[in-house]
Amino acid sequence: MNGVQTSLGATSGTAIAFFLVFISATLAITGWAARKTKTTSEFFAAGGNVSGLQNGFALAGDYMSAASFLGIAGLVATSGFDGLIYSVGWLVGWPVVTFLIAEPLRNLGKYTFADVVAYRLKKKPVRIAAAIGGLTVICFYLIAQMVGAGNLIKMMFGLQYETALLIVGTVMLLYVLFGGMIATTWVQIVKAVLLLGGATLLALLSLVPFGMNPLALFAKAAETYGPEVLAPGKLVSSPLEAVSLGLALMFGTAGLPHILMRFYTVPDAKAARSSVFYATGFIGFFYLVTFILGFGASVHVGRSAITSVDKGGNMAALLLAEAVGGRPFLGFISAVAFATILAVVAGLTLSGAAALAHDLWVGVIRHGQADEKEQLKVARVATIVLALVAMGLGLLFKGQNVAFMVGLAFAVAASSNFPVLLLSITWRKFTTRGAVSAIVAGVVSALVLIWMSPTIQVDLLKNPTAMLSLKNPGIITVPLSFVVGIVVSLLFPEPEAEAKYAEVERRMHLGAEDAEPAAAE
């Protein structure tokens, strides 16, 4: 592509046609799912009837966000090799989920990760703290997704920001309100197939001039931008910063509420493990493809053309689609990006509704005594509230640079949810006070340190310096949360919780067969 000639920002009939096909198909799925969603279990966990392969696709669909697709391709296009740190950081979190989290989560919980933490601890304080931690992560993630959705759709389809938010919020509300987890799962499966297929086709088209050889593409990039494009150190130059970012991305994956919730949709622990295996394969393949997309964009489109359209490089994949496949292919990839946003927002909203309805209303306010009809009603009210909050946050942060909020969501998840989840299933002496203290320490320290970081003080507030040199606080906040949880537990022992650990171990490894989880109280 020469210069910056692009049809991005103009109304595209092709993009709208693909978009309408996707919306029609997924709303038809929602109508089918609505007829099958009669109970709370079906609303929050698809009745536990999702297979390992289906959940693997849905996990990949839930996880591969627009930030992954557009953001990483843009980072690689503008920074070269260093963009890979995000791919690797996000990907290596999945073995942690496979070996430490998936099986205990499926065997001990019901709808949320708070079920697992509260299994042998005092349920009320733990559920309140876990809900605060989970909702904090969801809110930051939702802001990033909704603001990103408004800006992307405005650029891709030529729609107004507010119109784009209204469309995303309304369609997402229809998915979750009527189809619950069944509809959300199938929307994520459809989205994962479209995204994997579209990204693969885009990568293949970008390799055609190079004889389908990625090494020839990388060599061309090195010839154009210098050999340093294939070396690390441009995007993240400090080893301490690299480790801190890696910790947040890796352990944050294992603490995201909408990802953890997916393990309750499968029938048993074996299916939970197999679903992570499939998801890791799909996500790993996708990140390798985005690497080719990034270099493909830098060669076929050019860095100056990419940054002239969007300073952050987020339009690199779309510009590449237009360069190698013309406007029809750009329309298809734009519709895929829109589907990506919808699926992730639906997953976030459903997990937020579970925290509000299951953890706070049923677990705290009603002390586990709400009947099925009341639980389902509260779940749907919570879904409407969260959809309105998501649209409100999108409007509130219009025009703001909210890219840091994805990092903030991962930092809070890694610093609060992951430590308490891991300690509750692996350490006999972990107590209620330890769990609550660890969550509070993780959330507060992550928020404070990110406020003090260059991300806020220099990049957002335009101050000359920041109080903290680290952009990502994970190297401080993750260990801090573990230390606080351990020290408080040792200072204030809880013999009842320690006595129940043997039951946790048995159930964690053997499952509960047909028994109702105790955490449902």
Task: Give a quick summary of the entry.
By secondary structure, the protein is mainly alpha-helical. It has 22 helices and no strands.
Could you describe the 3D structure shown?
With 521 residues, the chain is mainly α. Helix content is 76%, strand content 0%. It contains 22 helices and no strands. Helix 1 (13-36) crosses helix 9 (161-207) and helix 13 packs antiparallel against helix 15. It is globular and about 65 Å long. The model is unreliable at 514-521 (pLDDT under 50). Belongs to the sodium:solute symporter (SSF) (TC 2.A.21) family. The chain crosses the membrane at residues 15-34, 55-77, 83-105, 126-144, 164-186, 193-212, 242-264, 276-297, 329-357, 378-397, 403-423, 435-454, 474-492. It is found in: Cell membrane. It holds the Pfam family SSF. It comes from Polyangium mundeleinium.
Gross morphology is globular
Radius of gyration, CA atoms, in whole angstroms: 22 Å
What share of residues are in beta strands? under 5%
Percent range for helical residues? over 70%
Mean pLDDT across residues? 87
| Main structural class | mainly alpha
Helix and strand pattern: HHHHHHHHHHHHHHHHHHHHHH
Q: What can be said about the biggest beta sheet?
A: none
Q: Count all strands and give the number.
A: 0
Which spans of ≥5 residues are poorly predicted at pLDDT below 50?
514-521
Q: How many angstroms separate the termini? A: 60 Å
Number of helices: 22
